[in-house]
Write a structure and sequence with these properties.
Length: 277
């Protein structure tokens, strides 16, 4: 089912409005951010293979950012001095804002006071509802903060067939933190992430998340919820898989108060669930 959904979305990306433009990097622009800045609504930014040492921001635009060679060969390296996510998407309410086929690594997050502390190493979504497809968020670190691989701070983003791998948070949400919003995670993988609580995924209070056919593997929490932690968060988890996760309690899942409904999920050996009212 996920592959059919993915094929449909990718086919839609190829339908290009007649008045829209393709901006090539390199070619038309030397940097990805320069192409994003120059793009108008409906345009596509097409990025060639390679490692791009940039920290990207999409704000108040409806565009498609596409890696022509895919995530294994198109890497956004956000390491270096200073602190910023690999990708920030802000004030983009349309699902037609799309990011396809990149690997984001080396991000450290951004200070989002008063709505939180440092958040979103790999990706930071603020009041936006983009569609993120076939992207990998790997080896990012929310230093002194939360959401190593990424953080969602408002909006209804969709992550389709994305991987959150080997990310670290000094506090909660090693792979991904949902602080505000109603995200959909479809066919995503959370592997080898670390945090105090919710090493793979942390769902903050009053959020609503939908998870379909997601896999949580070998995530490590020093406290609760190796795979997932939910604190008074609702939603639904359907056909999700938990294996090899570890925590002081709740190796697979730990919840406090309201938590997403679980249906047809699989738990491997020693994958305990801790539900606290």
């Amino acid at each position: 089912m996920i592959m059919r959904c993915l094929a449909t979305i990718l086919a839609l990306l190829l339908v290009h409005p007649a008045l829209a433009a393709d901006l090539h990097v390199p070619g038309d622009h030397d940097t990805i951010q320069a192409a994003i800045n120059a793009a108008a609504d409906g345009d596509r930014v097409l990025v060639g293979p390679g490692t791009w040492t940039e920290r990207l921001t999409i704000r108040k635009k409806t565009l498609s950012l596409i890696a022509e060679a895919g995530q294994d060969d198109t890497i956004i390296d956000a390491s270096g001095t200073g602190r910023q996510p690999g990708l920030t998407i802000k004030d983009c309410p349309s699902a037609d804002t799309r990011v396809v086929g990149f690997t984001f690594t080396g991000g450290k997050g951004s200070n989002v006071i008063p709505r939180g502390e440092v958040q979103g190493g790999g990706i930071l979504v603020i009041d936006s509802s983009p569609t993120i497809i076939n992207c990998t968020f790997r080896s990012n670190h929310a230093q002194y903060g939360c959401g190593g691989g990424g953080s969602i701070l408002g909006g209804s983003p969709t992550f389709l067939h994305c991987r959150f791998t080997d990310n670290t948070s000094d506090f909660i949400g090693g792979g991904l933190l949902v602080k505000e919003g109603t995200p959909r995670l479809i066919g995503c993988e959370f592997t080898g992430n670390t945090a105090t609580n919710g090493a793979g995924l942390y769902l903050w209070r009053r959020t609503h998340a939908t998870l379909l056919e997601c896999r949580f593997t070998n995530n490590t929490a020093s406290g609760h919820g190796g795979g997932l932690y939910a604190w008074n968060a609702d939603g639904r988890m359907d056909r999700c898989d938990f294996n090899g996760n570890s925590a002081t309690s709740g190796a697979a899942i730990s919840t406090l108060g309201t938590s997403p409904e679980r249906a047809h999920c699989h738990f491997g050996d020693d994958q305990s669930v801790e539900d606290v009212d």
